[in-house]
């Protein structure tokens, strides 16, 4: 009975310290949480790997979009017959957003490494989750905007009399479509990153 | 020394039960966590309020888009002079996506109530976070796609020879722009919802 009461007070002590600092109990009950720490550490390693994959996808999207200009081998006095991402504000937004996302991902790598080294620190993980959320929204809206323009370029729209331009600029359209696909890969990777962060925050305590 | 050892084993017991069920320790150390439970409960109440706001915004977006057809008071044999969301695949996608999001939000209300009643249950909260993430991506891509078409309808694009149609269909364009604004309100609300879920998961025991 006495021993049980002591047990409860020890628990309370650990809970209280966990609430105030989030750092003390790592040392205090380290031997208890060896397995759990390993699991959280594994999640952090997956986080780093996914993050590198997202960098590749975002850079591929930005680079493909940025280099997707096509000149037709003839021109007249009035028309230039040149297609580039510059012509469409949505594609410009796509390029800027994807470059921002790629830059953010590179800058987030050190924080991801911190999460591997110290699996029980919840501060950097929460920061990553918030910034990932913003980057996810940015990447998704850019992907959606570019997708609708790509669809229009492929199919045109008869009711508003917008003609398809992919007949003339096939290479341009192929490049842009590839960039859109890469951006959706980035979006899906971000969804897994946020999910991993939330799971790791749940395991943390 | 004996009591200390007993205390540590009790801690391990609670940790283990917490890992397996997530329900046992709520009763065991309930009197300790009164304050923390109140904070998590407050977050759950904010979650419910934000969710209702998101329902209103998503329904407004879907309804505004769905009712945004405009007939011009004259017609010829060849042209119909009628604009509706049906003409644009991006607007159709917008309507479907926003209806899905609104439906999901209504169905998620009971889970949000469960989170208020039982602030320490992490299962429904994690479920809500995952589904919110999917709904956020759906709403954001729909908003981005509709935005780029609305921009095109307002400004046109000279290099691809797509003319602005908002000169003719002013009411249609105003309705659609309003729907896009409402969808971005939904997106921002979802970002706060996910953030709240992540914070509540962190606060959980």
From TrEMBL, chains A, B:
<comment type="subunit">
    <text>Homodimer and heterodimers.</text>
</comment>
<keyword id="KW-0961">Cell wall biogenesis/degradation</keyword>
<protein>
    <recommendedName>
        <fullName>CASP-like protein</fullName>
    </recommendedName>
</protein>
<dbReference type="InterPro" id="IPR044173">
    <property type="entry name" value="CASPL"/>
</dbReference>
<feature type="domain" description="Casparian strip membrane protein">
    <location>
        <begin position="42"/>
        <end position="188"/>
    </location>
</feature>
<dbReference type="InterPro" id="IPR006459">
    <property type="entry name" value="CASP/CASPL"/>
</dbReference>
<keyword id="KW-0812">Transmembrane</keyword>
<keyword id="KW-0472">Membrane</keyword>
<comment type="function">
    <text>Regulates membrane-cell wall junctions and localized cell wall deposition. Required for establishment of the Casparian strip membrane domain (CSD) and the subsequent formation of Casparian strips, a cell wall modification of the root endodermis that determines an apoplastic barrier between the intraorganismal apoplasm and the extraorganismal apoplasm and prevents lateral diffusion.</text>
</comment>
<feature type="transmembrane region" description="Helical">
    <location>
        <begin position="91"/>
        <end position="114"/>
    </location>
</feature>
<keyword id="KW-1133">Transmembrane helix</keyword>
<comment type="similarity">
    <text>Belongs to the Casparian strip membrane proteins (CASP) family.</text>
</comment>
<feature type="transmembrane region" description="Helical">
    <location>
        <begin position="179"/>
        <end position="201"/>
    </location>
</feature>
<dbReference type="InterPro" id="IPR006702">
    <property type="entry name" value="CASP_dom"/>
</dbReference>
<feature type="transmembrane region" description="Helical">
    <location>
        <begin position="48"/>
        <end position="66"/>
    </location>
</feature>
<dbReference type="Pfam" id="PF04535">
    <property type="entry name" value="CASP_dom"/>
</dbReference>
<keyword id="KW-1003">Cell membrane</keyword>
<dbReference type="GO" id="GO:0005886">
    <property type="term" value="C:plasma membrane"/>
</dbReference>
<feature type="transmembrane region" description="Helical">
    <location>
        <begin position="126"/>
        <end position="153"/>
    </location>
</feature>
<dbReference type="GO" id="GO:0071555">
    <property type="term" value="P:cell wall organization"/>
</dbReference>
């Amino acid at each position: 009975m006495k021993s049980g009461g002591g047990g409860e007070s020890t628990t309370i002590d650990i809970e209280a310290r966990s609430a105030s600092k989030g750092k003390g109990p790592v040392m205090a009950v380290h031997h208890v949480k060896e397995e759990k720490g390993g699991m959280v550490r594994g999640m952090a390693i997956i986080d780093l790997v996914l993050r590198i994959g997202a960098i590749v996808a975002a850079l591929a999207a930005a680079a493909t979009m940025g280099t997707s200009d096509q000149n037709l081998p003839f021109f007249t006095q009035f028309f230039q017959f040149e297609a580039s991402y510059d012509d469409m504000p949505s594609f410009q937004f796509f390029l800027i957003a994807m470059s921002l996302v790629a830059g953010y991902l590179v800058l987030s790598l050190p924080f991801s490494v911190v999460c591997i080294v110290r699996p029980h620190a919840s501060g950097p993980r929460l920061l990553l989750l918030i910034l990932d959320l913003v980057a996810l929204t940015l990447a998704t809206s850019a992907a959606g905007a570019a997708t609708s323009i790509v669809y229009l370029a492929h199919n045109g729209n008869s009711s508003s009399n917008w003609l398809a331009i992919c007949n003339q600029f096939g290479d341009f359209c192929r490049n842009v479509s590839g960039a859109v696909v890469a951006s959706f890969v980035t979006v899906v990777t971000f969804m897994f990153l946020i999910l991993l962060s939330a799971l790791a925050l749940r395991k943390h305590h």
